[in-house]
Amino acid sequence: MTIPFDRLRRALEEEQFRLREELARLDARAPEGIGYHDHMADDATDVMDQTTRAALRRHLEIRLQEVEAALRRMEEGTYGICVMCGRPIDIARLKAIPFAALCLECQSKRER
Ligand SMILES: [Zn+2]
Fold first, then answer.
1. Distance from Cα 13 to the centre of ligand 1, integer Å
2. Domain of 15: which CATH number?
3. Residue 66 lies in domain
4. 10-37 pLDDT, tens per residue?
5. How far, in Å, from the CA of 3 to the mean position of ligand 1?
C-alpha cells in the first residue's frame, strides 16, 4: 500500500499552475486590478460581474492554498497523513482529491 507520490505531485503541480493562470486571468480582467476600465461593459453587468468574480477569486485562492499546503506536506514527508488526527488518509481519497488534508472521518466531523 504505497502512495503514488509522483503521480499525485504532478497532479498537484498541474492544479497549482491552472489555479495561478485562472487567478492571473481574473486579475487581468478586474478593473481595480490594473487600473483601467473595460468600457464595453455596462454598469449593471459590471456590478454583477464583480460579485461573481470576487466569489470565484476566493474559491480559487482557497483551492490554491490547499494545493500548496499539500505540496508542502510532500516536501516535509507528512503528505497523506490527516492533519487533524494523524492517521493515514485513504489512498483512494488522495487519488480523487490530491490536496486532501483531512481523512474522511475528520472531514465529515468538520463539515457537521
Ligand atoms: Zn483524520
1. 24
2. 1.20.120.910
3. 5-111
4. 999 999 999 999 999 988 876 654 444 5
5. 17
